[in-house]
Amino acid sequence: MLERLNEAMEHIERHLDQPVEATELARIAMTSEYHFRRMFSALAGMPLSEYLRRRRLTVAGAEVLAGERSLLDIAVRYGYGSGEAFARAFRAMHGVGPGEARRTGAALRSQPRMAFRLIVEGSSTMQYRIVEKDAFTVAGKKARVPLIYEGVNPHIAAFVKGIGRETLRRIEELSDQEPEGIVAVCDNADPSRAEGTELDYYHATLTGNADVPDDLDTLAVPAGTWAVFENTGPFPQALQKMWGDVFAQWFPSNPYRSRPGPEILRTRTAPDGSGATAALWIPVERTAA
């Protein structure tokens, strides 16, 4: 998998002055566009679109300083419709406009080209299981919140705090399947997975019961395959590390890829508040042999 990802990265480098489509990169990597975007953002630490922007502006910056092409020619070559749009993007990355950079020979910022490698640390193993689930309904309360990768998400914390105890009791009573009880469900995220973009967050339960009260939000989830990962440690740090390890280590080493669908998290806090046990459910499908 990593070898094919690196072939896709080489394709990007050869076509920085041309449109680069995620569908073509996914074809080279022999996976779905959905999984390619998820894998890239997890491994690179930034969305694919942001990496493309930074690489183009890095190469464009070198051409600006070289002085062999006009600024407008450089702008058009790297996909900008006008000199003004190029100047805004150039300044946002390099902290200086292209004209000033050319006149003064200013120091510019660089986005190095990326290559992916699998690093195995120690002899630790990742606990997981594969579960086939029938169709079910997510039932609870929903909010649209920004995506935050590190630390507690204050928007989710405030939303959950505002749900009354009686409502939580009624939600929990609907639980009739694994994972049991109140769970956190994330769905309908921006394809880029960029921090700050929004997603639907459900504080909810999973049920096969069609008789859900009208005042609750619902999400119908079709039957499918799920990979379930579990760990125990400080919350949310241990969970966030596990999520990163799933995409950086588990997917490249196993015959599965992520598929569209909600991610489900069940956490149970230790009595002394020292940490939590987390079970992360990610929708997956087997890759072709």
Summarize the structure in words.
There is one protein chain. With about 290 residues, the chain is α+β, with helices and mostly antiparallel strands. It is built from ten helices and nine strands. Strands 1, 2, 3, 4, 5, 6, 7, 8 and 9 form a nine-stranded antiparallel sheet that branches. Helix 1 (about 1-15) packs antiparallel against helix 2, helix 2 (about 20-30) crosses helix 3 and helix 4 packs across helix 7.
Nutshell version of this structure?
By secondary structure, the protein is α+β, with helices and mostly antiparallel strands. It has 10 helices and 9 strands.
Helix content: 25-40%
Tell how many strands the DSSP assignment holds: 9
Low-pLDDT segments:
none
Helix-strand topology string: HHHHHHHEEHHEEEEHEEE
Strand content: 15-25%
Tell me, briefly, the overall form.
elongated
Query: How many helices does DSSP assign?
Result: 10
Any chance you could write out the topology, listing elements then pairs?
Blueprint: H1 2-14, H2 22-29, H3 33-44, H4 48-66, H5 71-77, H6 83-94, H7 98-104, E1 128-133, E2 136-146, H8 154-161, H9 165-173, E3 183-187, E4 198-207, E5 217-221, E6 224-233, H10 237-253, E7 256-258, E8 263-269, E9 276-286
Antiparallel strand pairs: 1-6, 2-4, 2-5, 3-4, 3-8, 6-9, 7-9, 8-9
Helix pairs in contact: 1-2, 2-3, 3-10, 4-7, 5-6
Q: Keywords, please?
A:
289 residues; alpha+beta; nine-stranded antiparallel beta sheet; 9 strands; 39% helix; 24% strand; elongated
